[in-house]
Amino acid sequence: MTDGKRLTVDDEILARARIHAREVLDEYDLDEYDLDVDLDALEWETSARAKRRAGACRWNSRREIATIVLTRRAYECYDWEEFSAVVRHELVHAWEFQQFGESGHGPRFHERAAALDAPRHCRSFTEPRYRLRCLEADCEWTATRHRASKPVTSPGRYRCGSCGGSYEVEHTESGRSWTSGSGYGGAKSALGEEW
Ligand SMILES: [Zn+2]
Ligand SMILES: [Zn+2]
């Protein structure tokens, strides 16, 4: 995967999240909850490194700016319905920070999260152990595996599920990848304990 493509995914995440935030604040009847998120005092970021949390919200009290951080891997693992619920959950945190300078998962949070159909708890997700990715230039096919099945250990003997081209396997934790059985063995022995 090139850096150009990563940028595109991050841009897509941020654009969809911003649009969703506007829609949510327009569509839901929030007067009752006084859920008036100041979008001008809200910033958005993506994280390529977060592994367990799908989203987070930071507060800068000096600038009075809330920053919602969305995890790229979660966007890639979830469907939009799940991911947009993460966006709404973090919007409630942003609102609490903007209003009170602090945020948690107490009754006040719970009430607003329910009004937005957002989960009360921050979603955590388990990253798949392996990711398969087609090597053909114009094919976007990827798949995930939690276990070292044959397509993971011997990618040379299988084909991309979409175009029939060859694919690589990435060990998501380390970022190491291989395209053959010997590559798999090499990556596994190089990582040793970290495997
Ligand atoms: Zn939360
Ligand atoms: Zn393909």
TrEMBL record:
Lineage, broadest ranks: Archaea, Methanobacteriati, Methanobacteriota, Stenosarchaea group, Halobacteria
Region (Disordered): 173-195
Descriptive protein name: SprT domain-containing protein
Stored InterPro entries: SprT-like_domain
Organism per entry: Natrarchaeobius chitinivorans
Domain SprT-like as annotated: residue spans: 22-170
An example Gene Ontology biological process: response to stress
Pfam families: SprT-like
